[in-house]
Amino acid sequence: MGNVFAYPLEDRLYLNLTNQCPNRCVFCIRNNEKGVGYDLWLDREPSAEEVLAAAGDVSAYREVVFCGYGEPLIRWEVVVAVAGALKARYGVKIRVNTNGLAEAFLKQRILPRLQGLVDTISISLNAADADTYDRLCHSCLGPEAYPALLSFIRESKVYIPRVVVSVVEIPGFDPEPARKLAEELGVELRIRSYLQE
Ligand code: SF4
Description:
Blueprint: E1 6-9, E2 12-16, H1 48-55, E3 63-67, H2 76-90, E4 94-98, H3 102-106, H4 111-114, E5 120-124, H5 130-137, H6 145-159, E6 162-169, H7 176-185, E7 188-193
Parallel strand pairs: 2-3, 3-4, 4-5, 5-6, 6-7
Antiparallel strand pairs: 1-2
Bound molecules: iron/sulfur cluster.
């Protein structure tokens, strides 16, 4: 087991806070042995201080991204502390990659805490309807997951300047329903290739 709390990929620095996740998606990178080229399994979760120490001077990066082999907003207090410190010290752009379920999972409001700290939120939509979502994501939240995700996307627009939703191009994928839904939600759509992060 390694403990990689921060790792660069091209001109971005990625922060790895947790392996906890309410979902078990069929396409999860955690199921892909090669992963992103780093061992992102944690044998313990880092404190905000440890993440900041691992990140170091981030002024050269285009963006700092909270992600990990798990759902970073499950540890939203650490996201807030680290994003706040990095913004204050370096004025760096901050992005959070999320499955959009942490509020429903923790039964807690998180988005208002991110206001002014997070520039972009990239939310895994994964499907344009609840049945497909359940089939792909196997959420421990069950049928509650998809409506919670949609309301998280809508709410994100209130607190975060740029909201992007993503879907994975699994075999037989038709992008049209996702395009339509993203348009209705008023957010950008990104189509990720299968096994891409
Ligand atoms: S939500 Fe993300 S981390 Fe969680 S199982 Fe799905 S792809 Fe993996």
